[in-house]
Fold each of these.
Amino acid sequence: MRIDRNAMLALILLMSAGSVIAAPLQSVPASTLQQPAADEPGKGAQDLPEDVRGYILKHRMCMHFRKDAESGDADVRANATQLAKSVCPAADAATWKKLVRKYQGQDTIGGILLAERPPEIRTK
């Protein structure tokens, strides 16, 4: 049986990293580890409204399937094309614009949506 040397080194590093990382966290005050408020930078995805999270997920899946539809072998292209057709309509420019209008007073959400805008809006 042949053991990949790099895989073995990676496994050893991962096993030893747990103890190295755990030790410093024990001395950190609990207040430092708290989640930031929703309006602070560093807002987590779980703090976003459900419709924004849904749009971002569909947009990223759409971009992934479009990329796969343009490359790869015939089976991958066929599957990716079908998946893109089913996911992409929910992540189109009209949906994005609706969300931007809905959350226009909230800079954090607006900034996140700006980063996730559809490609047809980026080129204009």
Amino acid sequence: MFLLSFVTVVALGEVLLRAYHKVRPVAYFTEDKLLKYRGKPHEKVMGYQLNSRGFKDREHSLEKPAGTYRIAAVGDSFAFGSVPYPANYLTLLEEYLNRDGMQSFEVIDMGIVGTEPPEYFRLVRDEALLYEPDMVLVSLFTGNDFYLKLEKNMSPKKPLSFLYTFLHNTFRVLGAVDVLEARRGGSSISRRWCQ
């Protein structure tokens, strides 16, 4: 009887989580780093408001202005910039290229924290090319971008079980909270949950 009840609860949980995700997709259930780590449109990050596409840059029209050399830049947190927008190397690059006024340059910063070459490829293919760039600049980090095992189709994995993914991610978050609290010398949420 216990086994039947357990299987019923697990199956019901799986069905409900899948239905919820179908109606209202959440990054919590995905390994797709573009969805998981991309900024929310118009959200404030480090005192700078992200644009309507969720990038730490000003707004850019899809149509390239006449006489403009357009560069679409993709990458991880280095491209996104852990510094204020005016100090980002891509913002500085655009200023440098436009300093003599001979030609107009536009650099579109499409950096997303936590992404890697498979996501760069998909970002260029699905979004950057819509901006009709003359050049695509890919920022690579030697610390992790060259040691990546690539899947054949460069697509994110789909979860086998939404319930497993939900529980796994929840316990990972609680574990991270536990570690952070232990470092600060405070009580941990996960210990409070287990008591």
Amino acid sequence: MLIQREELQQPPFPLRRCARGGIGLYPDTWWNLASFSASITFFLLKMAPSTYSSHVVSLCLIVFFLLSAVNSQYEKYSFRSFPRHELMPLESAYKYALDQYTGEKWPETVEYMEVSLRLYRLLRDSEAFCNLNCSSVRLDDEEKFAEFPELRAFGNVIKRAQCLKRCKQGLPAFRQTMPSRDTLDEFERREPYRYLQYAYFKSNNLAKAVSAAHTFLLKHPDDDMMQRNMAYYKSLPGAEDHLKDLETKSYETLFVRAVRAYNGENFRTSVSDMELALRDYFKIYDECLAASEGPRNVNDFKDFYPSIADHYIQVLERKVGCETDLTPVVGGFVVEKFVATMYHYLQFAYYKLNDLKNAVPCAASYMLFDPKDEVMKNNVAYYKYHMKQWGLTEEDFLPRSEAVRYYNQTTMQLQMFEFSKQRLASDDEVCECCVILHLKIEISKTSTSLITINVFTSHESCLQFASRRSICAKPVGKSWD
């Protein structure tokens, strides 16, 4: 019999369920809410005085949460028809929001912080749009450069740059002053939500405050201050219903829906939603790669090829980070090996539908990402044992093409990035790394405040020290953090 992973018998990623007793609530139906409040108030008036006040407080908090239902700041966002009155430099909007925050002007803080988040999304979407549209642009007569590979390579680079220039001239996001790399990094780290959650709270919008705090904690689960804030929010009745990621992607919703259908043994619906989730994920992953090809800050001046390599390494680092950034968190748990997990669900759901022609390629696709998984190895062996009986061919045991492409791309990107960090680090970076790590070694060895630090007279002695002590395998960069 086909083996099913233990996680697949129960929800592998606990999903928060909103269990409400008593009268069913429909927050978006105002007359239902009003009649519900009236009936409960009448009921409470009949209760003993000692219990009345606490129930009224709980009811008020529940009703307050319902009245402040969360509408994401992206609800009316449109890449193709961005409101003209909101177009402004991202840096300016964000700085103005922070100034309003400092001045405790909460409505203005909320307004401009939300605008800045939409401007950031517009910029990323615009970057992705142009880079995707220009990704296949090449020289018209490449054969002419057959004997001159450098001219051919950079001819294609120039053609692509020309395409990008034309594309960006037609998009409103690029008519604004570009933000600094530091500002973009803050948005990538979801820092605006740190301010937004408090501004929402001070604006008496607890529902959005809970969602903003939750959105921030997904990126910073160990942030003490936000954890304390969240503990307070969770102590309020109805708060659990608003633990929503305001930056959630479409494939996350589809994935959760597919898992729920799977656990309810509604395998046809599960397959349909999981296939959509897979397709949406690959689309958004490609957009993330394209959006990674934006501008960079030039901090030093190097020769031609080292300078190009430096820029590409920065781009590559952001591309490598796409896989982690797009990994969903469901019910507080990170969905490890997300793409592989989707194929795992698919292979068993297809099997339960007696669709072996689709089940087997999904199993093979999973094996790309986790070839040592004993459960899936047994499943593949089971499929092969019944190969003739089920009319399967050797081609059916090949992984799906999109899985192969994704696996090869993520693997090669990571290999190239690690190679570049190891082989192209400057001597200064290596030397500083040696000093930092030697400092840490001495701190760990000494029981007094006396710390010895090697002072290197040359880069060569620094490198010899690193090699001799087997430290500094990977440079940490110019930072003492």
Amino acid sequence: MKKYLYIPMLTLAGTAAAFLLWFLFCRTGFEPDTGLPISGNLYGYLFLGLLAVLAVLFLIICKQLPDEREFAPSFSTAFSTSSPALLTVPVAGLFLLAASGLFDLYSGFLVNASRAEIIAGVLTAISAAALFPAVTVCRRHSSAEAPHLNSSNMLLVPVCCLVVRLVLTYRTASINPSLSSYYVEILALVFLTLGFYRLSSFAFQAGRTRRFALYVMPAVVLCGSALAGGHDISSALLYAGGAVTLLGFLLLRLDAMSAVWNHNDL
């Protein structure tokens, strides 16, 4: 894992910086009376500049990862680990996603009587449930035969659910005439969808670590930024859960790659 430790460290550092800048922009970048954006806000420009710098760094980092065109590992091989601590990360993310779905259901049934929130809650809860079997096959066993993911199609469920969630979120947010107030939220959902799509490709032995990391790293940064926007608790749990889940699977992939690299050096 030490060989690739700089990847999650840079991602988390970028997330912290983006969170701070977006938090400051949300507090100073809008008119208090109308809610319209104030042109020329320094924090808004710094935030966009940070995203551009991180995008370049992420591209450079992904180019340094091994090319897997000739051999694509199975899902259980690609994300296998002997560390219970690493497995805890995606599991924690899935619990956050499940909690987000439950809060949406509670709000939709008992608070706002909103059909959109009920749909969003059901989809988020289904996504979390569909991903749990994927985590269980990631524990590295001493036996020669690695466990297999029973249904590869289950990993496509979160992708489909996030697409619907993206449409619902855009329909609600686009009422606001100020794009600055919700574009980070939309981008976070887009990259979450792409990140889980790239994760699902490993279940069909078509995964590429370069492409997976290229979407996971900005997804984590954008989800962390979205948390600074002061959303309701279900949305905050969704962004936190999605980011933690994808980061957890990226850590598992990097750990599995490091294990292969160390074995080849022996």
